Amino acid sequence: MLVEAFRHLITPCPRHLRRMDYLKEAIGLKARYGRNRDAWAPHLGESRELIASAADMCAGGGRAVVIGSGLLLDIPLDVLCRRFADVVLVDILHMPEARKAAAKYPNVLFDQRDVTGIVEPLYRQVVDGVAADIPAVAYLPLQGADLVVSSNILSQLPIRPSLFAGRAKIHSAQAMDTLARRVIEKHLDALAAFPGAVCLITETQHQWSDGETVVETSDPLLGVDIPGGLRLNSRKWTWDFAPHPERDRRLDLRFTVEGFMRPGIAGT
Ligand SMILES: C[S@@+](CC[C@H](N)C(=O)[O-])C[C@H]1O[C@@H](n2cnc3c(N)ncnc32)[C@H](O)[C@@H]1O
Questions:
Q1: How far, in Å, from the CA of 29 to the mean position of ligand 1?
Q2: What is the pLDDT of residues 141-166, one digit of tens each?
Q3: What is the pTM (predicted TM-score) of this model?
Q4: In contact, 190 and 208? CB cutoff 8 Å
């Protein structure tokens, strides 16, 4: 806890992302991974394997773009760097350890951006108190890319904005739900419209379980369907995300994860 608090103090981060807890989340991700390394290993292995297969399947070898690269836990960076002329890592916040891990690959580029378009406008709205219509867009830097990888980010996209707006009470819960769904839809629309190869990995169900008995389920995609055009070459597995007592004294939190690989639309 103390280490995490110290890291929070010393890690460089734009003010609005710090205030919206993106830095806290990134530091927390590393700590959770440290505590649950064995439980997460099968999920991370499945993700890396699927991304490597998508790279194999992709016809072009120019550029791969990884959306939500985070700490690179689920990304086979060496495979991508060997297979593509350049690899663009996209995240709202690139942590020093990700930059360090990628430093040995001369063909890695970092692109720090909000891929939803709503994060800073929402922050401004709260700070400046000016009501605005905030459209969800999808800022995916896919120009000239051969492969796009969206790995374990889709369900995360609306979480920090929803919590921040909820705390500030600037939108009704219903308006925020609508915006959250739009964020997920826009990300999927942008992937579906991309002509190159697409690898999408996302949680599709959350389950609280008491041993083998499921006691509660929820939909992390908020009822948004993954377009049929992306649902190709699918795989499904379980992510033992928070075995007890990580989140609850007795209950385990597991995620159903689905992965898809769609070849380029025009044979790319
Ligand atoms: C669960 S983590 C993904 C794990 C990551 N692939 C890894 O291997 O460490 C979700 C990632 O999405 C990023 N993210 C969340 N919202 C974002 C946004 N609006 N734009 C870009 N990245 C975002 C987070 O910073 C985080 O790194």
A1: 10
A2: 999 999 999 999 999 999 999 988 88
A3: 0.94
A4: no
